[in-house]
Design a protein that fits this description.
Layout: H1 9-22, H2 26-32, E1 57-63, H3 75-83, E2 85-87, E3 90-91, H4 97-106, H5 110-113, H6 124-130, H7 138-144, E4 148-153, E5 178-182, E6 191-195, E7 198-202, H8 210-227, E8 232-237, H9 275-278, H10 285-318, E9 325-331, E10 336-337, E11 344-345, H11 351-354, E12 358-361, E13 369-371, E14 375-376, H12 380-387, H13 402-405, E15 417-421, E16 444-449, E17 452-457, E18 462-466, H14 483-497, H15 502-510
Parallel strand pairs: 1-8, 1-9, 2-13, 3-14, 4-5, 4-8
Antiparallel strand pairs: 2-12, 5-6, 6-7, 9-12, 10-11, 15-16, 16-17, 17-18
Length: 513
């Protein structure tokens, strides 16, 4: 498998410094080349935001392949937006399940987790396990801080509930107090669940619908932890709305006539597209009808997730935990359906695939606030750790979002996020293996800036989209960029690819002209 292109960290950072210093000349730009004193709000050396006192609980509801256009079918999520903070510019490090989830768990980019795909020599659960990453997750930080920790539903691609991995019972990852994890349970029925080391078979009965099972077990965990007066953190990781987009039986007839959204990018051809995108033909009426049916099923499948959120809120209220619990809603990646003439899938650096919801409610969180700062899934680990009063390890590359949850404005923030992808996907057994009419790009790295997207492919192709003029990413204007701007972008991307801890990643992301 193609690895990330080798770059020298010193060379990339030095080149970036020289370019920034040379932009326009003069003393003002020369000063920008000197890194400011490192005072990082949200990048922890030392204790977190709540070192003493009543430690808050954290509930993370993490969906699979949920795109922003599904939120309108989730009234409890919309209520969360009214009562909490919405991070409107929240991105993932890769629009693929396992790399993204690895970044969520560890707070680190794929070039440091080593997880670039769902399986094989550079991805999947086996690689995550063999590299020792399971001892460096946010569960490690929170359990060490005295929290009850739980994960229910999806863990990482390639995890099989019955595998023992040399132990005497089916494997349970370290630092989780409660473990209820399935394997390839995308159909939502007829799956196995590893329940704290004991494997249980679920069948085709309505009660076996996986999202509902996750909900029941999650509510029981909340009630037990509240009764024991122990702080808790639980991740409820649904397989919904991942293909085959199976709704709960009670929702299977909802939204009659609903079709896929027709944005300006729907069935539209890009100008100067990369080679992997260039040969896609317009979607005809048959494929459009297929997309309509699939989108309707996706909307139906998230209804059970939304119901779960309502049950969580009610249980928190009944156990007296509402005012001391942060409820976090997000997805591992987004999803395209018909955009850029692509059928259905992910893997690209387009906003449909990399920009996902992040909505948080909880104590002191301002109601109805939208934060448009660039945030990324590597930020969840340091956020959870600091809320729990735990130290954030220096190797964590994200930044805590706690200041935003307190309603504060943060001037000193990153100016770009990094996306890293290895491709094309050639593993037909991969549940995310793209069909012939969807996206399967070659390896790339990308910078998503506030108003632009820059993509470098391993084959030398480049993309640049001016999102102010072209919000649907249809017109590749890289060829029109000035040579100096091209050099800047390459240096900026190289610096972020070469970062390996909170300080170097912050410096690389902050020195974006």
């Amino acid at each position: 498998m193609i690895r990330t292109r080798p770059r020298l960290a010193v060379a990339a950072l030095s080149l970036l410094t020289l370019i920034v210093a040379g932009c326009g000349g003069g003393g003002h730009h020369a000063k920008r080349a000197q890194p400011p004193p490192v005072v990082l709000p949200g990048v922890g050396h030392g204790a977190g935001a709540n070192p003493q006192g009543n430690r808050p609980n954290i509930v993370l509801v993490l969906t699979d392949d949920l795109s922003w256009n599904l939120v309108r079918y989730m009234p409890h999520v919309e209520a969360m937006q009214r009562h909490g903070v919405t991070f409107s510019q929240y991105f993932v490090t890769d629009s693929l399940c396992c790399p993204s989830r690895s970044s969520i768990f560890t707070g680190r980019y794929p070039h440091d987790t080593g997880i670039f795909q769902n399986a094989g020599p550079d991805g999947g659960f086996a690689m995550f396990h063999n590299r020792g990453e399971e001892s460096q997750t946010f569960a490690t930080a929170l359990q060490t801080a005295g929290y009850q920790t739980g994960i229910l539903g999806k863990y990482l691609n390639g995890y099989h509930p019955a595998d023992k991995l040399g132990e005497s019972r089916p494997y349970v990852a370290p630092f989780w107090s409660e473990w209820g994890v399935a394997g390839e349970a995308y159909p939502e029925f007829n799956y196995h669940l590893n329940e704290n080391g004991h494997v249980r078979k679920y069948h085709q009965h309505a009660r076996d619908y996986l999202t509902d099972v996750i909900a029941r077990r999650g509510l029981a965990f909340i009630r037990r932890s509240a009764a024991a007066r122990e702080p808790f953190m639980i991740e409820l990781a649904t397989f919904a709305p991942h293909a085959p987009y199976t709704p709960a039986p009670r929702n299977a007839r909802d939204f009659p006539g609903l079709g896929v959204p027709r944005t300006p990018a729907f069935n539209a051809a890009n100008t100067k597209p990369p080679s992997w995108l260039a040969n896609h033909v317009p979607l005809g009426p048959i494929r459009t009808r297929v997309l309509n049916r699939w989108f309707r099923k996706r909307a139906q499948s998230v209804e059970a997730v939304d119901r779960m959120l309502g049950l969580i809120e009610r249980t928190l209220a009944r156990t007296g935990q509402s005012r001391n619990t942060y409820l976090v809603f997000s997805s591992d990646n987004g999803y395209h359906m018909g955009d850029h003439r692509l059928l259905a899938g992910k893997l690209t650096a387009f906003d449909t695939d990399i920009r996902v919801p992040l909505i948080v409610t909880g104590p002191h969180v301002p109601a109805g606030k939208f934060v448009d700062k660039l945030t990324e899934n590597v930020d969840l680990y340091p956020t959870f750790a600091r809320l729990a009063g735990s130290r954030v390890p220096d190797l964590v590359e994200g930044r805590s979002l706690v200041p935003f949850l307190r309603g504060r404005s943060v001037r000193d923030w990153r100016r770009a996020v990094l996306i890293e992808h290895h491709g094309p996907d050639v593993q037909a057994a991969d549940p995310d293996f793209p069909n012939v009419d969807s996206a399967n790009p070659t390896s790339y790295e990308a910078l998503r800036m506030p108003h632009a997207l820059y993509v470098e492919y391993v084959n030398g192709e480049r993309e640049y989209y001016d999102l102010t003029r072209d919000p649907y990413e249809l017109n590749n204007t890289f060829d029109a960029l000035r040579p100096l701007r091209r050099l800047q972008l390459r240096a900026m991307l190289g610096a972020l690819e070469a970062c390996h801890d909170a300080i170097t990643c912050w410096r690389a992301a902050s020195h974006i002209p």
